[in-house]
Design a protein that fits this description.
Four copies of one chain form a homotetramer. Chain A has 312 residues and is an alpha/beta fold. The first copy, chain A, has a single domain, classed as Glucose Oxidase, domain 1 (3-Layer(bba) Sandwich). The longest helix of chain A is centred in the first third of the chain and has 11 residues. The two termini of chain A are 40 Å apart. Chains A, B, C, D: InterPro entries: KFase/CYL, KFase_sf.
């Protein structure tokens, strides 16, 4: 993609100012009371799923990439009161990359031309203290809940996992909507299943997971925009195809990230474990549900780990 | 309280084996499909609230206590591809106590006599690697969602904040239920508001918040047991009264923790910011709602930060 | 001090290019074989002293300042081989500010006008990866050893500790040299004792130590330059007077830092515990000795903790 | 080696009580004024060498082992005073395993039968707070300086590097002493060169370095004892042969560690980069020198990174 073509799309999708000059929640603004009530109404069987990977040193990030979580015990069966040595507590500390496993990219995670979502200048807002604008704490308050719609592209294609490098197109999403009998409405969160996470969750093969990801195309950003989607999440590394070498012919690396995070203000959920949920959806034919995926309000952070939960 | 009296209560409330010898979710087992459907049905206006404090170095833990979160930027507007220096990303790392702010105590957080919930021996399960049983990852999968019931004890007493050291009794909880027109049902999560968090959130006075907390009495554990509550959360430091010096006359420090975590297997939510939610509940008279408070699945951790979200 | 007056001094002391365009060791270049042999020759009684503070959470940095070291045990009496459970090891991790206690400022620690020692542009060399030029690893290899000369200004003035805010002038240093019968030679490391560290080491009063430090004046930088000193260290927070408010009338905050680190390339040793050594020097009248104070070669770091050792 | 044979040696080498019931410095007590003066006298040419590896994420520990250092910048060219925006500082934090690269094992690093050096019971002294006895801070104060004697076994054998798994015997050490014209005296620190570190420093091959190390035999501990050596250091992973599988036929894993750390109280220096020093020693025929290798006084730590410096 040439930069001038990218720029045309970017201009069309740009939501800057749409929700006020000070807005830092972007397309989460699509999630109003009506959308939330619709989310609650989609619950029909009282089944709960968690979509978060475990956070530990055996995480999906290969050595040399982001730091997998390190858990440190600061108290192990430690006595509280010497008069009662049989009564004890344990305490712990974690040290982790905020992008190490199941997570949200905040709107400050990536940008170009020195400007972030809603026109914030990078030089004004980014420092060692984090992002003074568009930090993840704004996604965290009042949180992220919505109706989730799972689009199971792997199942659509009749495979367990899409091949590495496979592009998930708008046509694929439309076909999945048709096959599954769902449509995206304003304020929904779209969840795209490629099956790619199974390289990690089933095979425990970090490198197979990390390298050569299937993912959505740039035009999917336009489709999200046109449907007033609130956010997108997927079970691969970066929602869109990676590694960046895939963009060798493009004048804009990670174009989907840029359109979503910077132009639209649309959060990206990465490395969500969608396979067990998808199996249940395939079994009962219900692909919509209440999704609660609240990031931690880590002040100034450009991302947050999350344990998304689904109630069907 | 004498140890022999404590032991009698402990014996009655002990849920060990109730959900199988391998159970590590305790009273979260009360949250079945029916309870979850009831949670969804309690949504009536599509209003969303987040109850998590911000996670940063200005957290509620005074110096010398648990470590408030430290955010480190590992990339600030860093170029991805030297051919496109205008396209950049930012990345970050957090270092934090898992009990530093709004959080869940896992069942492994405290115990006595060398044995944890469901009869796990401390010497077998606790090490520098964390808790090999009763770690927070078991609460995280499939997550924590339920109907939440807010019991606003401060409002019941006609004050903004309960005085430090005030005991919240079963009578208080009953009175709040009556006044608010709610009852606790199996699988509900009880949320007790003391107003104490306002010392931190409004006054920014860490020490006032930390010292001399109002909190629930030991008998509240029995009341939770009798109602088959799934969990309890509060807006103070430790749900029950602290500091531990309050237990000077007791032969069991932190008796409520012990009854909940060790006997019942009932998770404790601490430092939840309930005041904005409570104001809304007072305004619309609705004190029940869908609560989603999924811990991160940090393998072996004895607690997890959380950003609880409420949908009314 | 007006900026134009500062600039005149800065220009005179600027060592850029003196040891080559690629030099990153600055005045440590003064320490040649002759100076090192002189250091060894100054050993006369075989007495050893360590000048480093303990590194732990009770360090000299008050809460909210730099992070005092956190030690985490990653193994406690952990079995190596299950066949031999009686044979165990322990392991640990530290998390600490590099400027938390006894330490060296690297040449990259402070600068002005966007340029560091030897003309390195800040925008080219400073990033989240640290300092690609003038990092502490260059001071660390081949290390820092030299003849140390202790100038005991507190003793000169007949006090245990200089008053907070006291200026240590060139006249003071000359008077100490005269009284002690020493002279500074090329490649020596000058060690200035104010007694101020005793607020921390004896009184354990972090705030008294942190606030209102006695320290050297700007002209001391000129004196070091004229004597071809290799480095300076002191027993206060920042060698020069702090807090920076002391520089209220100056157009250059921390002028001594700037002259030393940026112009001369002269490392600053801070928070060295000189009092026990000084007592011994007063007793035997010997104020020169071999000093070994090797920083850790932390790649790209702007400082390093150190445990300086002295052999008299 | 059978346990009963090991026990006989252990009993003979045990220094418990030799320097008092409270001693925590072990064989460093051999370093008295005479030994230190001898160290200073060994300086003859004023040449300085640093033996520490760089501390960064490209360290010698392969992924999944100890954590290589992570450097975080907490300030990058940050303004001190808004009135003078051109004057800035930078600051940093490190997170690292204390055994990640060039380091000292403290006496508390390994033990068996529940007892550490000088009869300290593990259950009394080891906890999440570290080692309350035999912590590295006792080695750090008053530091570690001595005459160092390099025994270049690789050169003795006429190779650049000993083969993986090669045992360095007492005969080898004696032969090296003879060839080099040196003898070990009380209070010396013995430095054994295998060349193995070149797998890391030259080839940058972590796994070749980590796996299949040449190293000293158990009897070398006896030889050190008989010569009243103060410490031993080597350029391999663990001074003795590793991995532990090498001890398959032994009833005591890491027997050399146990004899040194637990019985004798003799610190072990690991992963010291001896090759450049050795080349110089070969050139000038001088294998003795002043060695300063002061650990950081990290309270309660079981090891410390170090940048050993040598003055010839």
């Amino acid at each position: 993609m040439q930069r001038k073509d990218f720029d045309k799309i970017a201009e069309r999708l740009r939501n800057w100012g749409r929700w006020g000059a000070e807005d830092q929640r972007g397309t989460l603004n699509h999630i109003g009371p009506e959308a939330l009530q619709r989310a609650a109404n989609s619950v029909q069987s009282g089944k709960m799923f968690a979509l978060g990977l475990n956070f530990d040193k055996n995480g999906p990030q290969p050595p040399g990439m982001r730091m997998n979580p390190q858990l440190y015990m600061t108290a192990i069966a430690q006595v509280m009161n010497p008069n009662f040595p049989e009564v004890v507590f344990s305490d712990d500390v974690v040290h982790m990359s905020l992008q190490c496993a199941t997570q949200w990219d905040a709107l400050s995670h990536a940008h170009y031309d020195g400007v972030l979502y809603n026109g914030c200048k990078a030089c004004d807002v980014l420092s060692t203290a984090g992002a003074s604008k568009n930090g993840v704490e704004h996604l965290a308050n009042p949180g992220i809940m919505a109706r989730g719609v799972l689009l199971d592209i792997a199942r659509l294609k009749g495979v367990d996992r899409l091949e590495g490098g496979t592009l998930v197109t708008v046509d694929d999403l439309r076909a999945a909507c048709d096959k599954q009998g769902v449509s995206i409405q304003a304020g929904d969160i779209v969840m795209v299943r490629t099956g790619h996470i199974d390289h990690f969750t089933i095979d425990r093969n970090m490198m197979s997971f990390y390298m050569n990801n299937p993912g959505v195309t740039t035009e999917v950003a336009e489709w999200l925009y046109d449907h007033s989607a609130a956010a997108i999440a997927a079970d691969n590394l970066a929602v869109e195809t990676t590694p960046m070498e895939s963009f060798g012919g493009s004048e804009m690396p990670l174009p989907f990230h840029m359109l979503c995070l910077r132009e639209m203000g649309l959060p990206l959920g990465e490395m969500w474990n969608l396979s067990p949920l998808a199996a249940d959806c395939a079994a009962d034919g219900k692909y919509t549900f209440l999704l609660a995926a609240p990031p931690l309000a880590i002040t100034g952070a450009v991302g947050s780990p999350v344990n998304p939960v689904v109630l069907k």
